[in-house]
């Protein structure tokens, strides 16, 4: 049997095992919202659920990793990725309970209740008992476009099953947009298109988390990749820039994270900076403004983005550092809490990093500016994920999608993706909830080790050439 066929079947076996774990113990409506790994293990299918989750994730991750430099074509990558995703189209929600929040927010909108001012318990939502308790009284941080999508799903179907089908179809559309646009971005950066598509769409987070959950991040990424695709492939005519800006505006209207990409898109046009800014900015403002006005919701979702700050989990690097300092400080003072201060420092560092990355791309030579802008846009998303107060496993797909198309040095991103796939159980419970200590100190030690290794590498290779595949 050819090695690629073997890897394709191994990955499919992993997907089928994960899908089975979802059927046995996914994030179903009547699941135990207080479950732990131990309570799952004691359940009727507990050992099977945990075993299928561990082995299935491992098989898919191994096949994904092993094939990264063997992918024969973009078509092969897309077909294999779709094959691995297919089992998750038919499972109950798994890996997250966010879907129930989406449905409730859509129902709130249909009843004239502003989801940026109230939690889903204000209606109350018809499916309130399915929503994780921590999110029942919090406003939504999602943009107005996604609220309209959620409302349409509930309006058209009237129930959870139909809404789940629509959300998964919308997620598939976002993933399809990535498959269409990413090859052109990869070619513009001298990266094999088939490799980029493989890394972005076949990883262990895509099917079991992005699609099975499903999460709205795929919609944001789909709009963003299409916007950058237009700038790379179509040209620099005014209508192209306005359309690209409009797509970025729609991405922001799903999740504000996409706003990080707009300054870099301005550098990709080959036109004068002021003209590019006006055209792309006009498109973004028009689409974002139109959706906002159509929803009638205003900008209340922007302050609502802070609702996640109440989560204290070591999966966020700043939070892990703050937790570790807090553990140490409480040896001397029982009220010591370093988390808020470290998060504020991380926010300043994030802003500084984004500004640095933009100016580095801006200073690139005209013939290299487009490539530099794309790569630094990917790094900006990586910085965002690394320095924000809250991190969920599927966030790693934000930078991975663009890094796949802009660099061959992807080992760290792939390893982090595999590790992230193990952070969330099939029922949506996050392991970080149960191992705050020693989880936080271990993350800090891993971060220190990574910084030491990277510093030594740079000292050995101060002018390192473009990396070879690996």
Describe this entry's structure for a reader.
With 470 residues, the chain is mainly α. It has 20 helices and no strands. Helix 15 (317-329) crosses helix 20. The longest helix is centred in the middle third of the chain and has 29 residues, at 160-188. Mean pLDDT is 92; it is low at 464-470. Its main location: membrane. This is Membrane protein. InterPro entries: MptA/B-like. Keywords: Glycosyltransferase, Membrane, Transferase, Transmembrane, Transmembrane helix. It is found in: Membrane.
Brief description of this entry?
This protein is mainly alpha-helical and 470 residues long. It contains 20 helices and no strands.
């Amino acid at each position: 049997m050819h090695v690629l066929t073997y890897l394709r079947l191994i990955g499919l076996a992993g997907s089928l095992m994960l899908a089975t774990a979802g059927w046995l113990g996914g994030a179903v409506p009547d699941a135990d919202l207080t479950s732990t790994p131990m309570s799952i293990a004691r359940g009727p299918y507990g050992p099977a659920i945990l075993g299928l989750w561990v082995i299935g994730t491992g098989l898919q991750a191994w096949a994904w990793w092993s094939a990264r430099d063997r992918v024969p074509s973009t078509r092969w990558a897309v077909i294999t990725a779709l094959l691995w995703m297919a089992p998750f189209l038919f499972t109950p929600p798994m890996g997250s309970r966010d879907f129930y929040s989406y449905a409730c927010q859509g129902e709130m909108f249909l009843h004239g209740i502003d989801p940026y001012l109230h939690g889903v318990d204000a209606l109350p939502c018809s499916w309130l008992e399915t929503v994780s308790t921590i999110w029942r009284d919090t406003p939504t941080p999602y943009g107005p476009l996604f609220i309209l999508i959620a409302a349409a799903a509930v309006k058209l179907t009237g129930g959870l099953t139909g809404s789940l089908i629509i959300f998964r179809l919308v997620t598939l559309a976002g993933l399809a947009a990535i498959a269409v646009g990413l090859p052109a971005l990869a070619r513009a950066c001298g990266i094999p298109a088939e490799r980029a598509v493989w890394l972005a769409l076949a990883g262990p987070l895509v099917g079991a988390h992005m699609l099975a959950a499903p999460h709205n991040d795929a919609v944001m990424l789909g709009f963003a990749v299409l916007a950058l695709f237009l700038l790379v492939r179509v040209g620099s005519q005014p209508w192209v820039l306005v359309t690209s800006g409009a797509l970025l505006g729609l991405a922001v209207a799903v999740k504000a994270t996409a706003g990080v990409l707009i300054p870099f898109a301005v550098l990709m046009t080959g036109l004068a900076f002021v003209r590019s800014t006006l055209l792309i900015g006009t498109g973004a403002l028009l689409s974002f403004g139109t959706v906002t006005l159509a929803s009638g919701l205003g900008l209340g979702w922007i302050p609502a983005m802070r609702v996640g700050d109440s989560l204290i989990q070591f999966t966020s690097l700043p939070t892990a550092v703050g937790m570790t300092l807090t553990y140490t400080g409480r040896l001397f003072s029982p009220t010591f809490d370093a988390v808020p201060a470290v998060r504020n420092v991380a926010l300043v560092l994030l802003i500084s990093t984004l500004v640095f990355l933009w100016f580095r791309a801006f200073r690139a030579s005209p013939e290299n500016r487009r490539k530099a802008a794309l790569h630094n846009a990917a790094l900006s998303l990586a910085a965002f994920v690394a320095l924000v107060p809250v991190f969920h496993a599927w966030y790693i797909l934000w930078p991975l999608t663009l890094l796949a198309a802009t660099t061959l040095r992807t080992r760290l991103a792939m390893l982090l993706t595999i590790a992230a796939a193990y952070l969330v159980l099939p029922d949506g419970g996050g392991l970080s909830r149960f191992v705050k200590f020693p989880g936080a100190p271990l993350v800090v030690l891993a971060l220190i080790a990574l910084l030491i290794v990277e510093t030594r590498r740079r000292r050995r290779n101060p002018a390192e050439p473009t990396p070879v595949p690996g």
